[in-house]
Amino acid sequence: MTSRKPSARARRRDDFLNSAGGLDDLFAAGRRGLDELDARREEARIERACSSKARYDTKADALEAIAACAEHGRRGLSGYRCPHCGGWHLTSHPRRG
């Protein structure tokens, strides 16, 4: 059985905190892990939203691509300006808003 004296409890608590590197270190490590996770999620979101798609420099280029697709039977496409790269991408989804 361990001692119940306040000094013994304080020593055990200090030993625990020192073995864990201190709570500040623990919280900082947790925050770093969350920041890294957020960065990976953001990269994946940009990959899905922009990097994996064909990019057209101008609206006219995007409209040409839409017309070419229509000639081959693909209808219902529209273009939109990408907030990530500033170029134009095509979509088959109806416009929101």
TrEMBL record:
Residues 1-11 have a biased composition (Basic residues). This is IS91 family transposase. Residues 1-20 are annotated as: Disordered.
